[in-house]
Write a structure and sequence with these properties.
5 helices; 2 domains; 8-stranded antiparallel β-barrel; alpha+beta; disordered N terminus; 8-stranded antiparallel beta barrel; Lipocalin
Length: 280
């Protein structure tokens, strides 16, 4: 009758090995187990180091380089991307195809009729489909099949200007979801400042004004507006009438991104303004 040999397994195997080999084998076994666990966790793929918050710097397409506005950004997660094309916010689904590419499926976006749609139209056109990834120490470049690129950096955008103590120059009016630039004849005339004590003052486009303002977390409310009484005609008068009506429409939602301020009334009307120190 044949006698079966007992072969040690598991922990019983280690004493049977030469002592000198045990220290070398244990770390190798542990690394192998860790690698298997990571592969299972991410579906047998290694996710690239591309997720995070990115500031968009420029686009290159059709032989042109388009420089990004301060608000253009991309927050890239493992399965979802959110960001801002430059004016409109967007959301998209993403799928990493290994460490060197991802596939983007566009989702929802806001639909403001912005005054300068050139950059964001191109950004939206490029940020879709399969994109190659080129990751550097502090940058990320996405490349389309035709060689167009979206260049981004980890550099943080400039700090937001403070709501108070900043002189704001009105550059556009919002009506019905449409953003219209201030007419050239009136550009630069409408300005205002909100003091830390709640006093507002400035020029509506033609006449000087003053008012008390109550500032809360997300809204500000103008009290009665007093102004000089010059007769204002033409574009400057139109801007003045629009601002006077806006300031008395109740609580205005305020938002600052970089050096840009947006005030929006409950009916959707509003204004955008830039910090004077950022443009002059």
């Amino acid at each position: 009758m044949r006698t079966l040999r007992h072969v040690p397994t598991g922990r019983a195997l280690l004493p049977a090995l030469r002592p000198a080999l045990v220290p070398a084998l244990v770390p190798a076994l542990l690394l192998g187990l860790a690698a298997c666990g990571q592969a299972e966790e991410h579906g047998s793929r290694t996710l690239p180091d591309a997720t995070g918050s990115w500031t968009v710097e420029s686009l290159t397409t059709g032989g042109r380089t388009l420089h990004a506005p301060e608000t253009a950004r991309l927050d890239l997660g493992q399965h979802e991307a959110t960001g801002n094309y430059g004016c409109n916010a967007f959301q998209a689904a993403v799928d990493f195809a290994g460490p060197g590419a991802l596939t983007v499926t566009p989702g929802s976006t806001t639909a403001m009729a912005c005054k300068d749609l050139g950059f964001e139209t191109e950004f939206a056109r490029l940020f879709t489909g399969r994109l190659a990834l080129d990751r550097g120490p502090d940058r990320l470049t996405l490349k389309t099949a035709d060689g167009s690129t979206i260049a981004m950096t980890t550099r943080l955008p400039a700090a937001d200007a403070p709501l108070t103590t900043t002189e704001w120059k009105v550059d556009a009016l919002i009506s019905g979801g449409t953003v219209s630039s201030v007419p050239a004849e009136a550009a630069g005339r409408a300005r205002f400042t909100l003091a830390a004590d709640g006093a507002a003052s400035g020029v509506l486009g033609c006449n000087r004004f003053s008012a008390k303002v109550t500032v809360e977390a997300a809204t500000l409310t103008f009290g009665p507006v007093t102004s000089t009484r010059m007769a204002c005609e033409g574009p400057a008068g139109e801007v003045e009438r629009a601002l006077t009506a806006l300031f008395v429409r109740g609580p205005l939602t305020w938002r600052i991104q970089g050096q840009a301020l947006t005030l929006t009334a409950p009916d959707g009307s509003g204004l955008t303004a830039v910090a004077v120190s950022a443009v002059e």
